[in-house]
Design brief:
15 helices
């Protein structure tokens, strides 16, 4: 017969587990009723009792982020993002098969916190759990391109198109694979003269950024209206003059205009990226700062019209991190290199 103290401990453990499950049900009910604050508090109580409750940790991560209101998703601030990220690390530790947790964590790390080096490691950990998944490779390629490490992209592309990777018959995934391949090719062409290294204050691209700091980057809409639209208009006018006298000719002209618009738009995107090279370089400098946690952008550039325009496109948490990094004033070493975990 078991000792009474052992029976007491077993009974106590059963009560605790039951209490955790009851709290979890209460948390789900509160969330369904629209009281996310109460739901998050109850989920925190659940993991306090049962630290291995993966669903509760996932709920904490999701409920720490702002809910969508009227179909619009409010972006989280730095504190909300950090809390969600902390919970997601616990989720993937307890349940490595939770693809949603990996995806959300990658988004928060890279787009919201700007911690690209940690993002590389995050997706490499995901590859360790799911080697045949293509999403980690796509995300790693995007990070490497953003920081200008194009040589490292060759390894990821080789794996992506290798026999060990399954690309499911999914048009969205196929489009992402093709899109990332084109992104690497475009970056290679654009930086054929050498990739911009923001940590190196002697890089010639900094001189160009300084000269262009008073100009905002050209928006895609403005570019289409001032460059693509006039060309399409001239082509359409010429085609209408030549073939528009009949109903069939008018229909042909209509389709010609559509084809010309989309074709010229696609072909001219390279020119737009070239015109905005200084803005893309400054974008990389911001990524470099948030990745390392130290400053590299010169003071005469920071606060300029170009800087404010580029930073304005970033997430609230990213902007908060940039402000904190700027306040610290610690400079990046010119010899800093990205740690590539593969």
């Amino acid at each position: 017969m078991a000792h009474p103290s052992i029976l007491h401990r077993i009974a106590t453990a059963a009560i605790v587990v039951k209490s955790a499950e009851m709290l979890w049900l209460d948390a789900l009910e509160a969330e369904q009723n629209g009281d996310r604050e109460l739901a998050a508090s109850l989920a925190s109580d659940v993991v306090y009792i049962d630290d291995s409750h993966a669903d509760a940790w996932m709920a904490i991560a999701q409920w720490s982020l702002p809910p969508s209101a009227r179909g619009r998703q409010e972006m989280p601030n730095l504190a909300q993002t950090a809390k969600a990220m902390s919970a997601l690390r616990k989720v993937v530790d307890l349940n490595p098969d939770n693809a949603r947790a990996w995806e959300l964590g990658g988004t928060l790390l890279i787009d919201h916190l700007g911690m690209l080096e940690h993002g590389l490691e995050w997706w490499e950990s995901r590859r360790g759990e799911s080697p045949r998944d293509i999403i980690p490779l796509i995300e790693q390629l995007a990070i490497l391109v953003r920081l200008g490490y194009l040589d490292a992209c060759a390894n990821r592309l080789e794996i992506l198109y290798g026999e060990d990777i399954d690309i499911p018959p999914n048009r969205r995934l196929e489009a992402r694979v093709e899109g990332v391949r084109k992104m690497v090719e475009r970056a290679a062409r654009q930086e054929a003269d050498g990739a911009f290294a923001p940590q190196d204050q002697k890089d010639q691209r900094w001189d160009i950024i300084r000269r262009m700091r008073r100009r905002k980057p050209i928006s895609q809409t403005f570019f289409l209206l001032t460059f693509v639209a006039p060309i399409v208009f001239l082509l359409g006018s010429a085609a209408m003059y030549a073939f528009g006298s009949t109903p069939l000719g008018s229909a042909m002209v209509f389709f010609l205009i559509l084809a010309s618009y989309f074709g010229i738009s696609r072909l001219s995107m390279g020119l737009l990226h070239k015109l905005n090279r200084h803005a893309l370089d400054l974008d990389r400098a911001l990524d470099c700062e948030t990745t390392v946690g130290k400053v590299c952008i010169p003071e005469e550039v920071r606060g300029s019209k170009l800087y404010n325009s580029v930073l304005g496109n970033r997430m609230p948490a990213f902007k908060e991190r940039v402000a904190l990094i700027q306040k610290s004033g610690e400079k990046i070493s010119g010899k800093w290199e990205l740690h590539v975990p593969f």
